[in-house]
Specification:
Layout: E1 3-9, H1 23-40, E2 44-57, E3 61-75, H2 77-88, H3 103-107
Antiparallel strand pairs: 1-3, 2-3
Length: 117
């Protein structure tokens, strides 16, 4: 089965959430809302990765920062439709080739059949 993937940055700030007391609770709720929004569109959460990103600092400087990315996947729709059609309609079998003669039978063929003179 083939998949398509979507990578989104993980939230960096917690939104204000009614009923969440601690910063960890607010952050967890913010993350859950982001994941549920993508799940509603058919995306399955796969993993979170922390990846380096090089950014400019000043005119000529560069600095590496790390970004946490959420990885989602879902099956390719076109691939699923093709697979469903193949399962619904079995392919016709090609006719079998005639059996080849044995080695002794092949030597008993007339000379004109073998291309000789």
């Amino acid at each position: 089965m083939a998949f398509e993937y979507k990578v989104v940055p993980a939230p960096t700030r917690a939104r204000r959430v009614k009923g969440a007391k601690t910063p960890a609770d607010r952050f967890a709720q913010t993350l859950a809302e982001a994941m549920n929004a993508l799940a509603a569109d058919g995306w399955e959460y796969l993993r979170a990765d922390t990846l380096p990103q090089e950014q400019r600092k000043g005119l000529t400087g560069r600095v590496t920062v790390f970004q946490t990315m959420l990885v989602f996947r879902r099956p390719l729709a076109a691939q699923d439709e093709t697979a469903a059609q193949n399962e619904a309609e079995p392919a016709e079998k090609a006719p079998a080739a005639p059996p080849l003669p044995s080695a002794s039978a092949a030597q008993q063929l007339p000379a004109e059949g073998r291309g000789g003179a």
